[in-house]
Fold this sequence. Notes:
It catalyses: tRNA(Arg) + L-arginine + ATP = L-arginyl-tRNA(Arg) + AMP + diphosphate. By secondary structure, this protein is an alpha/beta fold.
Amino acid sequence: MDYALDRFTREVTAAIVATGRVPLDLVELTTPKAAIAADLAFPAFKAAKTLGLAPPQLAAELAATIQLPADGLIGAVEAVGPFLNFRLHAERLATHVLTNIMAQGDDYAAQQLGAGKTVVVDYSAPNIAKRMHVGHIRSTIIGQALVNIYRALGYRVIGDNHLGDWGKQFGVVLAAVEREGKPTAEGETALEQLEAQYARYVAAASDDPELDEHARHWSLRLEQGDSEARALWQWCVDLTMTAAQRNYDRLGVKIDHAYGESFYEPMLADMIQQALDAGVAFRDEGGAVVVEHLQKLPTFLLQRSDGGTLYMTRDMATVVFRLQEFQPHAIIYVVGEPQSLHLRQLFALIRAMGYAKDVGLTHVAFGTIFDAKGQPLSTRRGNMVYLEALLDDAVARARSVVEQKSPELPEAEKLAVAEAVGVGAVVYNDLYQDPKRNITLDWERMLATEGNSATYLQYSHARCSSILRRANEDGAGGPGGDLTLLIHPAEQRLLKQLARLPEVLREGAERYAPFVIADWCYATAREFGVFFEQCPVLKAESPALRGARLVLVAATANALRRGLGLLGIRAPERM
Ligand code: ARG
């Protein structure tokens, strides 16, 4: 799809090059500041220098000789000091942007940039027999947004849920279940019971060496593939994944694979040997396999002296497996900031072993979640939040917003809208700013109908839908008309904003930053607000203008829905 602003940029570049004065590699374009009446500028400094001219002189010369393509998107060109400023052709912009959006519908802004390239995204990664806590919540939400963004750019995206389903602690999990019986509840409550059983077992074992020994025995049985141990472990995995799936469904999360740490167990001996052979690791007197002096990183282990392997060992095998299985161009880890060192060590190790030469290994680190009082969530503080409960809480609060705003909706629709608004509030709160920053659970702000919140964006979308519904009902004509009539400044600003989504999508991917899309959604909703205030739609001066404005409204709804969809947020038709 040839998007309006991409085409505009191409036309500007070609027109400058066609003057014969500036070679292609010196054509660097910039976006002028908002106060300047131009859409793209060519700062003539560099080119002027190589030609031995003063920049304003070159700009003036170019302005005088440049040929604009007929029927193109360039409306005007003008030299302003050292800049050559280009303006979009208002009527053609309107036609081009709206035709793009209407033609593409839910795929608006999709591109082929990533065609033929594969990206693996490692996200969510809850631990078996435990509830998903803030780290997993953020990873799940940010990870899925990145998956959506890269897919829209044409990449083959492989999502992998690196479940924490292996390690010594599973001996305790199994022993505890054996001791107290399987929990009878389901979902997050069942997992909470498992966590409690685990804690009681650890407490009891602290003054009962027999219990300790018994847990170790279970751990050994599991590692050796004993069928009873394996079955009990599988039961824990299934229980956890069933609970996780409920949350995933609500969040619109779909992860292609869930190999999990256990999957790599059979590969670990070979991996350790490879690290030894490569001279990256050595075996110390105690028998442990150690990695030391790797790019000044702190020392770490690949194998304990008792032969046990570690999180790191499994992560190392995971990279190698992914390289072979998927031939990715990049692997993106969406993991909390506290694991930064772990991942730096992992990436350094992998590279020192000669793997992943042309493969990007990126850690998208995220901060923590604070409660409304500004305290970080923690189990010890007793203010911990778990995913299912968080979503339920959000939806219950959203329900009262719906009750207030649209008491007339039928009950089933109220439920659906509350779900979309509540879940949307949680998701947006995570995505509206840089992942590195901490986020705060401030319900007032999260569910506000004004300001930068999902609710406000959903509300703007619903407002568009409502205008279109009313247009349908009043019999005075639907979308259509003459799109070249959309030259009011507020219309033009909204059109340009809609036109930006394709480049915003690229920027979001480049920066691993869903917030770039969130910012776009917010700016779009605001521009729509201005347009709606200044330009009557249903009561437009002429039927042709009414039709054109309705197309603009429909395109705005479409584009907003798309932007929100990339973030994993639903946009109800009514609120
Ligand atoms: N399960 C881990 C945790 O809860 C996160 C795994 C992240 N991914 C990875 N490849 N290490 O801390």
